[in-house]
Amino acid sequence: MKKFTGTGVALITPFNEDKSVDVSALKTLVEYQIENHINYIVVLGTTAESATLTAAEKELVKQTIVEQNKGRLPLVLGMGSNHTDALVSEIKSTDFTGFDAILSVSPYYNKPTQDGMYAHFAEVAKASKLPVILYNVPGRTGSNMEVETVAKLAEEFDNIIGIKEAKGDLVQAMNLIAKTPKDFLVISGDDMITLPMVLAGGAGVISVIAEGFPKQFSTMVNLGLHRKVDEAYQLHYQLAPAIDMIFEQGNPAGIKSVFAHKKLCKNQLRLPLVAVNNDLDQRLLEFVQQNNS
């Protein structure tokens, strides 16, 4: 699936001061990604604070992005749950007009076994009319999806096309690349190790830092895909301090600070998340001022 090779971004949900969805800013952010050569957009992922959105607000976010995008970029819809039957029911009842795939996180909190993860995603694959990208993020879910489980799913379900691998473990990433089918997409979910993953054979990234600095990060990924290693690493090291900073006090607090300094949206989050403190906010401002090309 070449449309998911390169740089995808996990788009935030901008809020007004009263914490309502800022539709105008959301449209602006979509245009910002398109203008700066991002390859695809992930809608209603973790970075979108989707856990705090009502069903009506999720629909508003989806429709706003679909209408603003106008088919210019592929769109991936975040759909995950720790309740398999509820997720299957949601998938079957969802209107996927305008979307090209779903991104489905491994069940969280329940801490299922590998057999449980396999059975969960088997049901998701059977229910989905769209391609499915798995999402492994043990730091949030509490359990790791092992390489053998992913490989088995990739081999047995044609519509499971890739994985967003966010364990932050380069060895696991390389084993995924080695042990899954050649056309299976191993996508970085960790901005700091995106370039080495790409150079090892990965398909690209679903990124947070890239939505704030889309031109620089997507250029880095493209250089990596074309094996222009020295040029790619020059950009990696330029952006590395910002990658550390945006996750220092949680996601999406850091990237929302970046967007506020770029005057693309307000620096508003929903509880239990709060804005970064003044010290980090100032450091992010300085980085934006130095790298706002």
Instruction: Compute the number of strand runs.
Output: 8
Overall form: globular
Radius of gyration: 18 Å
In CATH, the homologous superfamily goes by the name Aldolase class I
Sheet of most strands: 8 strands, parallel, barrel
Explain the layout of strands and helices.
Blueprint (H helix, E strand, L loop, with lengths): L5 E5 L12 H13 L4 E4 L11 H15 L5 E4 L5 H10 L7 E5 L8 H14 L4 E5 L1 H4 L5 H10 L3 E6 L4 H10 L5 E4 L5 H6 L4 E4 L1 H4 L1 H12 L3 H20 L4 H9 L16 H13 L3
Parallel strand pairs: 1-2, 1-8, 2-3, 3-4, 4-5, 5-6, 6-7, 7-8
Helix pairs in contact: 1-2, 3-4, 4-6, 6-7, 10-11, 11-12, 11-13, 12-13
Structural account:
- The record marks 46, 109 as: Part of a proton relay during catalysis.
- It is an enzyme of class 4 (lyase).
- InterPro entries: Aldolase_TIM, DapA, DapA-like, Schiff_base-form_aldolases_AS.
- Catalyzes the condensation of (S)-aspartate-beta-semialdehyde [(S)-ASA] and pyruvate to 4-hydroxy-tetrahydrodipicolinate (HTPA).
- The protein is an alpha/beta fold and 293 residues long.
- It contains 13 helices and 8 strands.
- Strands 1-2-3-4-5-6-7-8 form an 8-stranded parallel barrel, surrounded by 5 helices.
- The radius of gyration is 18 Å and the shape is globular.
- The model has no long low-confidence stretch (mean pLDDT 97).
